[in-house]
Amino acid sequence: SEKRRVAPNASGGAEENSYEEMTMAEIMTGKGDYFPGLIPLVYAYLDHIQCDSLTMERMTSYLDFIEKRATGQLITPATWIRNFIRDHEDYKFDSVVSDSIAYDLMVACKEIGEGKRACPEVLGNVEIKPISAGDA
Description:
The protein is an all-alpha fold. The chain has helices spanning 2-5, 24-29, 38-48, 53-70, 77-87, 99-113, 120-123. It is flat.
C-alpha cells in the first residue's frame, strides 16, 4: 500500500520492507536507539494530545501491566493454569485433568474474576474489586 511505502525502514536496512526479529519485551519497551517501543510511543502520544491526569493515571496502570507481562515479570494465564494443575493434589503427571482438578480450577478462576481470590503472579498489583449479584 502507499502508506506502507512511506514508512521508514529499520536502521541499517536498505531494502524497502526491512525488518528484524525482536522479543515481545523489545517490541513493547524498545530496542537500541532506533526502535522506541510501543509503550513509549503511547506515552508520547498521550503527552502530545495533552491527556488529562485521570486518563493518564489509568493508562499508566494498563501500560505498566502490559510491560510486566511482556518482560516476564508476570506469568501468563496459561502458565498459571499449568502450574495450578501440576500443583493440584490429584494430578498424577499423566496429562489427565480429572473432574476434581477441572472443578477446582474453575472455582479458582471464578474466585479470581470475582475479586475473592488474589492472583498477583498473573495480575501484579491490579486489584479486582469483589462483586456481588446485587452489583451486577
